[in-house]
Design goal:
About 95% of the residues lie in helices and about 0% in strands. The chain is an all-alpha fold. It is rod-shaped, with a radius of gyration of 33 Å.
Length: about 80
């Protein structure tokens, strides 16, 4: 009988350990899903920032060309 009780006790301990590991795995999966969403959000922000930077660079070049045209026109007048 003692052997049977020991086996039952060990089995209960293993079941409890399995359940604990399953809970930990679920928590890790949930944390991974949250991190994945955060990563996607950061990627979207990065893409928006890069698009904004490109637009600003184009605007800067257009302003440079306008300033150069104005300077050429002033030189031609004076």
């Amino acid at each position: 009988m003692d052997l049977l009780k020991q086996l039952e006790s060990k089995m209960q301990a293993l079941v409890q350990q399995r359940n604990q590991l399953r809970d930990e795995l679920d928590a890790l999966k949930a944390a991974g899903a949250t991190e994945s969403q955060e990563l996607q959000s950061l990627r979207a922000q990065l893409e928006a920032a890069q698009a904004g930077k490109t637009a600003l660079e184009k605007d800067r070049e257009a302003v440079k060309e306008q300033v150069a045209a104005i300077l050429r026109a002033l030189e031609a007048l004076g």
